[in-house]
Request: fold
Amino acid sequence: MMTSSLHTLDTPAAIIDVPRAMKNIRRMQDHMNALGVAFRPHVKTSKCEQVVLAQLGAGARGITVSTLKEADQFFASGITDILYAVGIAPHRLPHALELRRRGCALTIITDSVVSAREIADFGRAHGEKFPVLIEVDTDGHRSGLHPEGDELLKVAAVLHDGGMEVKGVMTHAGSSYELDTPDALETLAEQERAGCVTAAERVRAAGVPCPVVSVGSTPTALSAKDLRGVTEVRAGVYVFFDLVMHNVGVCAMGDIALSVLTTVIGHQPEKGWLIVDAGWMAMSRDVGTSKQKRDYKYGQVCAIDGTPMAGYLLSGANQEHGIVALEGSADADIVARYPVGTRLRILPNHACATGAQFEKYQALSPDGSVQEWGRFHGW
Amino acid sequence: MMTSSLHTLDTPAAIIDVPRAMKNIRRMQDHMNALGVAFRPHVKTSKCEQVVLAQLGAGARGITVSTLKEADQFFASGITDILYAVGIAPHRLPHALELRRRGCALTIITDSVVSAREIADFGRAHGEKFPVLIEVDTDGHRSGLHPEGDELLKVAAVLHDGGMEVKGVMTHAGSSYELDTPDALETLAEQERAGCVTAAERVRAAGVPCPVVSVGSTPTALSAKDLRGVTEVRAGVYVFFDLVMHNVGVCAMGDIALSVLTTVIGHQPEKGWLIVDAGWMAMSRDVGTSKQKRDYKYGQVCAIDGTPMAGYLLSGANQEHGIVALEGSADADIVARYPVGTRLRILPNHACATGAQFEKYQALSPDGSVQEWGRFHGW
Reply:
């Protein structure tokens, strides 16, 4: 078989810089080890067996998933300790049961009395003691119960009295994506920790065992200085990082391990535009840096070797066309500098969204060879 | 086999309202018939065999694709007349040649002397007379040569003298998506027509046959009153329509044939939020209505029967979580009104982007039954 390289792959292609990804994995695991907590990576970012096995190899204990399809796929890869970290819809309980009956140590989550009752009723009816984490809201971001509220204890009681296993509490301080200073991040990490620990202590004080205290988001995980009372941390996007995370301040541009390889297919010389074959179908429609301190439009353009080209952004995107332009003033020499056929790489705003646009990754080794790593999508 | 319905499908799911799609197909084809031009649908919107066969059944002549993967897939479905409407990158010429050698009547496009030379050199080297459309820019939107410029004639000469078939000229007035009045749309449709016809006449005057004059975008196609000199029209999103097209003014809300079925998985009662299982992974990150006259955020929420719920929008989206809220003031009764397990449908901003998030569609018949229609993605 001929070895593929960045010069021979069809474009657009999703390139994983393997040494960077491994460095990112190591960095997070080392930080978690230093803080004395277990680490449970969120695999929704990569949906890729090779990446997840590397995370487990580095020391992760179990995985976090955002869909039961991810649970199915990674259970088929031999991973049994799986947390499904989206509040379970009652119609999915049969699927969760089926996974557990096949030997998957699946944990589910809930944040309402109604759902807790459905879980308990279904579990009892089928002789299954579901392990459940109760979701807590520590930053007003999305889901979860107030750590100091009555509902938390009601949910714990409904599950416990209903014969289910209250395995613990969990939270996700997703508002960390909106911050961009180390102090603010450290403060939110502490708020996330304190809120979740408070919730656990209240559940325990009510007489319900609550061993697990699970927190995390990439920015808070990397910014936490002290995780007393926490038993595990979850994070996903750190494995690749992206321009949003760079703006948040938790990675350097040179840590971003996912890029889109693209080919120049035309020009608009008077406008100083390159037309490339990476549009929004390749990059996704995510413009997550548009409200951050540095707006990268649809992505930062790099040379084929990964060196960022200062000021060149993917300034516009149609379905299969991208427009590359130099910020500020048009590049009058852009046609000569980047003729048709030139290959470039684009760093994405949001690795989870860009990765999801592709059926497979191309894993780039330091020797310049690439190999396919599968990924799945859908539900 | 048990018949599926909107009440039993797993969520999120991409629902095609079949009667609406058929009505949209019929409407466009009737309009093209009335204007006396051939219609060549852009299949990048659906990437679905059943939809495309319905378009051909209604009278379409050939298809338009945005990737060679689409060409491969639809050629495998028995469709031979295919226009690959993205400027061809030289490294894709062997793939195009292989399709033609297998019997696919593939036409390619270009808008530069450099690419035209590559096509001619490659074609001659392999004894293949590629049919080529020259891309013309009629609205400054993206790619294409000026209809009155010298480059147009140079490209025509390079192809013609190089032994290729200058099949014609083509343009896409994509800036039509930014308009929202019938007058402005009709004016742009005329500008698109006139520019493309001018280009064809200039090529012919230079002694190069140029039979095809191909124009189109959904808004201009539906707004054109006269297409003298045009031989074919291309459009894609009209088959499903979406909220962006509704804002542009070329469809009613009730024409939108694609929606995402979702389940309520939780609440934040104090905020008046529903948490649903359709986040940006289901809807895409497209917020194309955010700068239009009506901002629908991530989508318009409807009851399971498709009736829009006035003021309820998908106001926020994380990967697998969506936040539904009533605009203006919080709905204090939202928990009672839409309990956990309630099924809703969300109309998307951009059907091409939302469809691409799914592995398959669920085609909804008037009797309430659904069946799977496949779709593909990637390159």
Remarks:
- Chain A has a mean pLDDT of 97.
- Chain A touches chain B through 58 residues (CB under 8 Å).
- The radius of gyration of chain A is 22 Å.
